[in-house]
Automatic annotation (TrEMBL):
Family matches, as InterPro entries: AAA+_ATPase, ABC_transporter-like_ATP-bd, ABC_transporter-like_CS, ABC_transporter_ATP-binding, DrrA1/2-like_C, P-loop_NTPase
Keywords for the protein's UniProt record, in alphabetical order: ATP-binding, Nucleotide-binding, Transport
Protein name, as recorded: ABC-2 type transport system ATP-binding protein
Keyword Nucleotide-binding tagged: yes
Length: 300
């Protein structure tokens, strides 16, 4: 199985604990979102997964074994600090990196052509990296992480610095890798990207995992959702229904904050007693709401 597994992983730098008892499993064909404020420990975790840093404690396994030089061709890594050689031509740079990952020269050439076309930058093939804009350099670095068809993709802030059109282009490519069965982990500060792409996620704060699970579970276990009801009849009495924490009324309906689905059901039953209900909906909290509640407003 193409599974990435971290068990009780800890990393200390001197007295400072950068990653504290982190456990997670990312299965085949899964995209895992890794969220945290600046300095939360995301990059440190990625470096440990790649074997660039040694954990102080715990174990990391890819397909049941630690990652070593011999498995490195199975892995694609987009580092947070972008590191291309400014004076080298795009094509030479990418062939060099492709060959480092075990690709044959011709295969590397074909992959480079394919990806430059795909990302709509074929005209940069013979340009020096330093002649490209930041966003286009980023695309070249993304190509470097994908071109050898890795089974495990580790992407540190892949969308930062890209304009909205390029964000969509990259999302498309990453989804294709997932659909082909790749195991993907990416970090982001952008909750909307994670909400759209990730089945599973963790939020870490000061090295500690404060939220973990599927997007569904995370939203459910947060225990806070809004029920919106619209009726032609007076429903102000509904605030007395047990389990309702808060309510507000406007012309287009009433909003009740509740902790669980049972309370939402009770609200609907009660509302129906006063007359027909024109609108009833349960609105889940957004990942943004959850992140802010868990990590704290000082980071928001
Ligand atoms: N080599 C090191 N020596 C000492 N401290 C380090 C080292 N590397 C990282 N740290 C510390 O560990 C913490 C986590 O850093 P890390 O780069 O993993 O955070 P991050 O979640 O990737 O943050 P960002 O979103 O800002 O990139 C930080 O407080 C950082 O200063």
């Amino acid at each position: 199985m193409m599974t990435l597994q971290l068990e009780h992983v800890t990393k200390r730098f001197g007295d400072f604990t950068a990653v504290d008892d982190l456990s997670l499993t990312v299965g085949e064909g899964t995209m895992y979102g890794f969220l945290g404020a600046n300095g939360a420990g995301k990059t440190t975790t990625f470096r440990m997964i790649l074997g660039l840093l040694t954990p102080t404690g715990g174990t990391i396994r890819w397909k049941g074994k630690p990652i070593t030089y011999s498995t490195s061709h199975e892995i694609g890594y987009l580092p947070e600090e972008r590191g291309l050689y400014p004076k080298m031509k795009v094509e030479d740079q990418l062939s060099f990196l492709g060959e480092l990952r075990g690709m044959k020269k011709n295969d590397a050439k074909a992959a480079i052509r394919k990806w430059l076309e795909r990302f709509e930058v074929p005209q940069y093939q013979s340009k020096k990296v330093e002649e490209l804009s930041k966003g286009n350099q980023q695309k070249i670095q993304v190509i470097a992480s994908l071109m050898h068809n890795p089974e495990l993709l580790i992407l540190d802030e892949p969308f930062s610095g890209l304009d909205p059109v390029n964000v969509e282009m990259l999302k498309g490519a990453v989804k294709e890798f997932r659909d082909a069965g790749a195991t993907i982990v990416f970090s982001s500060h952008r909750m909307d990207h994670v909400e759209e792409l990730c089945e599973q996620l963790s939020i870490i704060d000061h090295g500690k995992q404060v939220v973990k699970g599927s997007l569904r579970e995370v939203k459910r276990s947060f225990g806070r959702q809004n029920v919106r009801i619209r009726s032609d009849y007076d429903i102000t009495g509904l605030q007395a229904v047990s389990g309702v924490r808060n309510s507000s009324y406007a012309l287009d309906g009433a909003v009740f904050q509740v902790a669980d689905d049972e309370t939402a059901d009770r609200l609907l039953q009660e509302a129906l007693k006063s007359g027909p209900v024109r609108h009833f909906s349960i609105e889940e909290p957004s990942l943004q709401d959850i992140f802010i509640a868990k990590v704290g407003a000082e980071h928001a």
